[in-house]
Each structure stands twice: as C-alpha cells, then as structure tokens.
Amino acid sequence: MSYMNEQELDRAIREATKRAVVDSEFRKTAVANGTAALAAVSSKGVPPGTSIQFVDNHGKNTKTIVLPDPIVETEQLSEADLEAVAGGVALDECGQSCATGSCITT
C-alpha cells in the first residue's frame, strides 16, 4: 500500500472536512474513526505512526479550537543580524551612518 505525503494528507483532510459538513453519516464515521474517513476520500493510506482525529463541535455554544503545530525552536538572530537582513543601517557612536564617513573619531 502506498501512503500519503504531507500535501496529500492535507488535501484528504480538507476533502473529508468538506464532506463531513454536508453528510451526517460520514461525519459520524470521521468522529469515530478518522483514518477510515480519510480512506473514504483517498486511495492512499495514512502514513504509519500518524493518528487522525476529527472532533465534532457540540452545538451553537461550544466551539472546538485546534491549535496549530508548535513551532520548533530555531537559533535566533542577533539584533545586528536582523538589521542586516532587514536592510537597516548601522549607526556609530555619534548616531550617524558609518557608511557616510562623516564621523570624526577622537
């Protein structure tokens, strides 16, 4: 059996979500067994180790909010690095651009 890649998985989830909005039986299937719901909208399987769970809002006054995946910590840039990337201008001690060459050092 071939398995969905990330893009195919996202596409299958969107398709299952659209179908669950209009098909109450499919919605029950999606809530009971997310993998089965995706199998109904895709010819490929869910990647091994991937868990699929659809959650049903329960009425008008209850809203289920799904948080996005956490951002993996990456090395942060220093202020100087950020300025260089943003195209900022470095200032010297006198508050003028070092590129002008107008500063007099003592």
Any descriptors?
106 residues; 0% strand; mainly alpha
What does this protein structure show overall?
This protein folds into two domains: 1-55, no CATH class; 78-106, no CATH class. Helix 1 crosses helix 3. It starts with 5 loop residues before the first helix and ends in a 20-residue tail after the last helix. The longest helix is centred in the N-terminal third of the chain and has 17 residues, at 6-22. The mean pLDDT is 83. With 106 residues, the protein is mainly alpha-helical. It is elongated, with a radius of gyration of 26 Å. The protein has four helices and no strands.
Topology (SSEs and partners):
Blueprint: H1 6-22, H2 24-32, H3 34-41, H4 79-86
Low-confidence stretches: none
Write down the overall mean pLDDT. Answer: 83
From the N-terminal CA to the C-terminal CA, the straight-line distance is: 75 Å
**Largest β sheet strand count, sense and barrel closure:** none
Give the overall form.
Answer: elongated
The total tally of domains equals 2
Oligomeric state as shown: single chain
Instruction: Bin the helical content.
Output: 25-40%
Instruction: Summarize the helix and strand pattern as letters.
Output: HHHH
How many separate helices? Answer: 4
Computed CA radius of gyration, to the nearest angstrom: 26 Å
> What is the beta-strand fraction?
under 5%
Number of strands: 0
Class of secondary structure makeup: mainly alpha
Give the structure's gist in a few sentences:
By secondary structure, this protein is mostly helical.
